[in-house]
Amino acid sequence: MKLYVSVDMEGITGLADYTQVDSSKNNYERGRRIMTDEANYVITEAFNQGCQEVLVNDSHSKMNNLMIEYLHPDTSLITGDVKPFSMVQGLDSTYAGAMFIGYHARASMKGVMSHSMFFSVRHMYINDVAIGELGFNAYVAGYHDVPILMVAGDDQAAKEAEELIPNVTTAIVKETITRSAVKSLTPSKAGQLLKEKTALALENKEKVKPLVPPDHPVLRIEFANYGQAEWAALMPGVEIEKDSTIVRYQAKDILEAYRAMLVMTELASRTAYC
């Protein structure tokens, strides 16, 4: 069995605020070591459970956070930026399942460091379904007929996953108090939980169906201000919905919608004087 693992950072055990996930801040090195250990618990247990191949994709910020020297020696790691499919780079139909580790809730929702791609996105939609990074990545996996077997992160990420993906296994390593405060397991206790949940998720893999995306989806992104919408609308095929900061794009499939989202959020991030 081939397993795909996407690892974000905001949902990692014990991490509560931006000083632990921003490479320019003082707590980052601690955060990335805990992130690496957490990924390794999942990877190692997957091999213990009989997986023949595990591909890990570093999915946070510049996507060069995981410390490859500490990972299971049989792991393959995708690291660095720029990636055409970002948090799901390398995922295709050859994988029997995927796991999302260190994930967080979508923008405008309760949850530690909740956001969607970058902090000026208020909401994202595929047709009428509100999604964040978790949902969008799950749709791309579904396009390739790959089910999301497990999501690990805070309690709000787990709630979001369970609402989107019936029978998904969730591993809650911390509980949200506010957007920048949590009640967390210790890393060793979280490691034990992650190993148990990884084994359970692989055991129950036949119970989880891929999250199949709609054909010809409409992508809608609501930004915090009109300037961001204007920047995003510079992409061909994008229009701003009247009297709003929502941009709309009609995609031929979910892969095109995903890449359009990457371009629009990157353009919008250029807005100055927010």
From TrEMBL:
UniProt source species: Cytobacillus horneckiae
One MF term in the entry's GO annotations: aminopeptidase activity
This protein's name: Aminopeptidase
Highest taxon listed in the record's lineage: Bacteria
Swiss-Prot/TrEMBL keywords: Aminopeptidase, Hydrolase, Metal-binding, Protease, Zinc
Residues annotated to bind Zn(2+) 2: 8, 60, 104, 133
A Pfam family per the record: Peptidase_M55
Positions with a binding annotation for Zn(2+) 1: 8, 10
Active site residues per record: 115 (nucleophile)
